[in-house]
Here is the input.
Amino acid sequence: MELLIALAIGVLFTVGVYLVLSKSLLRILLGTTLITHGVHLLLLTMAGLKTGASPLLGENADSYVDPLPQALILTSIVISFGVSAFFIVLAYRAYRSAGMDDVEGSRGERE
Amino acid sequence: MNNLLVMPLLIPALTAVILIFLKDRIGLQRVISAVSGFINIAVAALIVYQVHTDGIQTLYMGGWMPPYGIVFVADMFAALLVLTTSIVGAACLFFSFASIGEERERYYYYVFFHFLLTGVSGSFLTGDLFNLFVCFEVLLVASYSMIVLGGTRVQLRETLKYILVNVLSSSLFVAAIAYLYAATGTLNMAHLAVRVAEAGQGGIMNVIAVLLLLVFSLKAGLLLFFWLPDSYSAPPLAVRALFGALLTKVGLYAITRTFTLIFIHDTGLTHSLMGWMAGATMILGAVGALAYSDLSRIFNYNIIISVGFLAFGISVLTQDSLNGVVFYLMHDMIAKALLFFLGGMILAASGTEQLKLMGGLIRRYPWTGWMFFILTLALVGVPPLSGFAGKVMMIRSGFGGMHVALALIALASSFVVLYSLIKVFQGVFWGGERSEEEIRPLHYKAMMAPAAVLFVLIILMGIGAETVNGFVMQAGAVLADPAQYINAVMKGVDPDGLSNIIELHDSVSVDVPQ
Here is the structure.
């Protein structure tokens, strides 16, 4: 299972890096989203996947997974959600008011 | 336990929240901001005093003992940086009053300002690696907003690049944290230091260490500084002063903390790499500072040179060089803020950034001119100014160890700093006035006041170096001897409880190869 997820993380990173290296802003946005997804999945996988039930069902539970990585992922998701929203709004604003749709802003000269 | 430690975080955060509701009442916003700034300085000074008399202070959030929960730790290094941050922050605040303009003030400038300070102070004080990531994000989100506030074309373009770089580096940071958690089962820095020492810093640990080094380098502008000169040219000067003084320093602080506390067992790899990155940064920064002839580029490449210089000091890793790092870091935060203040006055007076289009300002603004000149000497490291002591300690220990080449580069970089800033001084203040047709309105006195305070601080730090050094030595001693930090954080922890945690972790992550 870990191997499968690790491969999926690898694919997410590869696709994300490919998209980030392109010039169009929209692709870059998608690329960063995919990379962040990959990172979150990595956090989950690194804590171990197969070891049991929900976290912390009581002190005497037979098995439970480590709850810390899930708390970390939750925090990280919230942060990347906020940053992505800001990034998208900014890109939209740049497109609307300055006509930019790539990072160099070269298309914007028309306005 | 010391609840005071959360105040440098809480005061700016609370101020920012209050200011959100006072959107249109600019006068009140300024008053509250200023009061908050002064309280912050007082609290930071109190923390420095407590650390000085009682040793390292800790705060276990919610009473959770390490390695559970989040711990705040103020050793002397963190406390001094928090104090410097609050002073520089207050100065930037007053400079903003004079220069930022009503439009920005109305659109939550001070809110972002205080959230930025929250993030910076939090990064210095936290003793938990994931919490460091969160504090980084707080200050980064505030800095995105501050760069783009105003929404000009250049600002939009540079903010997009700046966010992209930081989103990627933050992703790598979280990835490094994930690996580290898998390998050690903890994120508390003191506990990490114990675990890494126990497990030995072998292959996987070195991978993580280098990954963290790259992440922090990207934030600090160490070698990976390609984004810095453009991004830092976009916002107004008050914002640039804040960024130049504080943001790269947070990255440097993270490097210092990580590579004096946790990853210290394979210095041949990690610290050599850091050393050569520092050398390359100084050389490339010097090339940039010599190549350009506009104010903001020269200033920005000067930031990069000093980042390289400090990283060189960290990579040497002796007691003496770490003392130098602490001293020079404090000096550099104040001096860079002052540099941008004076740059802001020059810009406001001449209306251009191109050196060729300026001249003769010394007639109208003699004080600005001479302050700039003395600041240049301080940045170069001429005694008895504040840059001298730190530089001497770092370069001396560089020559003492096996870092002669790097020490020579560091010395040479000082000459480049001298040349590039004297070039600015000549271009701006000497010669005939070029822009006499329009005398621009300038809140000269209001801009001068915060600059004068920082200027006096630079001179006092130089003349009173012996006094400052007492504090600096205490900071350097903890950096050079991680056991002090670890014991201070872990002292309340039951050793049996700790071993239970280790067993728990081993049973939980049974599938992860360690």
Observations:
- Residues 107-111 of chain A have pLDDT under 50 and may be disordered.
- The helical segments of chain A are 2-20, 25-46, 68-98.
- DSSP finds three helices and no strands in chain A.
